[in-house]
Design brief:
It is a single chain. α1 crosses α3 and α2 crosses α3. This protein is α+β, with helices and mostly antiparallel strands. The chain is globular and about 45 Å long. The mean pLDDT is about 90. The protein has 6 helices and 7 strands, in the order βαααββαβαβαββ. The protein has a 7-stranded mixed beta sheet, sandwiched between helices. The two termini are about 30 Å apart. It comes from Hoeflea ulvae.
């Protein structure tokens, strides 16, 4: 397995993996393109968005984990500046997420880390997270939900600490979590450990 910068050609995998990372929230938000008649399917809208729209949610901010069998996973991150570009598409279900993100301005926000089901358990998610931390010049932040104990444990093992919670506005009958959880990690020292651990 190796990790490489994404290319525009990875956009279809990126949108599928983003939907996996968000437990279907990405599809919910992308349905706006279908309702407006611009696209037939949400994932088509998302693929074109990642491929052709500049900004935080672009293939240019993605790392791809690849094995001999092809794309296995991805991560997406960008600097939170507090400007309008930090936000995704307008949707009421995203408002609690945007509120939490506003508490992490000045950090590198890891928006998504996802691995295809058949590649899980091989350390790919851990390797992607490490690569994201390596490209962060300062502190890092990430949001997950309170039902994702595996992700929470992984992030905490890398020195992330909980900074706040916000209620989840229901977007799916199958999503059981009730709160979004914001975690942050201070800037790393030269050895990769959080600076507070020196």
């Amino acid at each position: 397995m190796h990790i490489r910068p994404a290319t525009r050609a990875d956009s279809a995998d990126i949108v599928i993996l983003d939907d996996i990372a968000s437990s279907g929230l990405a599809t919910r938000v992308l349905e706006a393109g279908v309702r407006e008649g611009c696209y037939d399917r949400p994932l088509e809208f998302g693929r074109d968005g990642y491929a052709f729209i500049d900004g935080p949610f672009s293939w240019k901010n993605v790392l791809i984990a690849e094995t001999g069998d092809g794309v296995a996973g991805m991560s997406l991150s960008f600097e939170l500046t507090g400007g309008p570009g930090d936000q995704g598409l307008p949707d009421p279900v995203l408002e609690p997420l945007e509120t939490l993100k506003s508490r992490a301005i000045g950090s590198r926000f890891i928006d998504s880390v996802a691995v295809y089901t058949r590649f899980r358990g091989q350390g790919i998610g851990r390797a992607l997270l490490r690569a994201e931390l390596d490209r962060a010049a300062g502190p890092s932040s990430i949001i997950t939900d309170d039902a994702n104990s595996r992700a929470l444990s992984l992030y905490q093992s890398f020195g992330f600490e909980e900074q706040g919670r916000a209620p989840i506005i229901a977007f799916s009958d199958t999503h059981t979590a009730t709160q979004w959880v914001l975690l942050t990690r201070p800037a790393a020292n030269a050895h990769g450990a959080p600076a507070s651990a020196q």
